């Protein structure tokens, strides 16, 4: 295992990443940027699972696939809404959302008709 030490982008310190790849000193920063991008993907997947995915005990793959695809759709609606909201108020387009996932779910569910 190799540890990569690069200057932190968020503070004056150093960011550390561990890898099993052979990475030269010149490549270390690029490898850490790729890890950072991958970490954002993992966070998005976690958000889909925790905030948007309906719970089911069905073993039918079609039901489970439908629930997952619907959760991804809701997640994408949330990210688009957040992006448009930031653009409308002139907010910086960073990763931190103005509209939380929970607020988005509440807004969507408040527009749905009540079940019979």
Q: Can you give a write-up of this model?
A:
With 116 residues, this protein is mainly α. It has a two-stranded antiparallel ribbon. It contains 3 helices and 2 strands. It has 2 domains: 1-38, no CATH class; 53-115. This is Putative transposase (TCE33). InterPro entries: RNaseH-like_sf.
Overview features:
single chain, two-stranded antiparallel sheet, 116 residues, mainly alpha, 2 strands, 3 helices, 56% helix, 2 domains
Q: What can be said about the biggest beta sheet?
A: 2 strands, antiparallel
Task: Count helical runs.
Answer: 3
Low-confidence stretches: none
Q: Kindly, what is the distance between the CA atoms of the first and last residues, rounded to a whole number of angstroms? A: 58 Å
Helix and strand sequence: EEHHH
State the total count of DSSP E strands. Answer: 2
Q: Please indicate the count of domains.
A: 2
Give the strand order, joined by hyphens, for the main sheet. Answer: 1-2
Q: Strand-residue fraction?
A: 5-15%
Class by alpha and beta content: mainly alpha
Mean pLDDT: 84
Helix content: 55-70%
Protein name: Putative transposase (TCE33)
Organism: Halogeometricum pallidum JCM 14848
